[in-house]
Hints:
By secondary structure, the protein is an alpha+beta fold. It has five helices and six strands. Strands 1-2-5-6 form a four-stranded antiparallel sheet, with helices on both faces. Helix 2 (about 50-60) crosses helix 4 and helix 3 (about 70-80) packs antiparallel against helix 4. The termini are far apart.
Amino acid sequence: xxxxxxxxxxxxxxxxxxxxxxxxxxxxxxxxxxxxxxxxxxxxxxxxxxxxxxxxxxxxxxxxxxxxxxxxxxxxxxxxxxxxxxxxxxxxxxxxxxxxxxxxxxxxxxxxxxxxxxxxxxxxxxxxxxxxxxxxxxxxxxxxxxxxxxxxxxx
Length: 155
């Protein structure tokens, strides 16, 4: 079993919470019965060195373990510019392009900061990955929070 490692940047999370509180970032509500009533916002898309950043780059450039046919000319242009031996420059350029395009198109992914709104306040409850699944997130992460904050059960 391969485990994915995600490093969380505490200052990034605090800045994200501050932006939510200032109304500059708005989370999206979960749909469905299991996580309905909770909100999510992505974090870790840019500054993480864990799985999120790898995922974004991989999803942009590759399909079926090969460079996407629509991006072959872009890739070849990068290799020609830096030379085949300059792997770090090639990877850095591929990273920059993937992050820019995905951010511009709204496809940039990170992990979730999950919270609930109640009485004009946000309660920041947990961090979760996409792969955990709604049932696991609810049972293992959110339900223990609802014991600590029973007023959130009223929403």
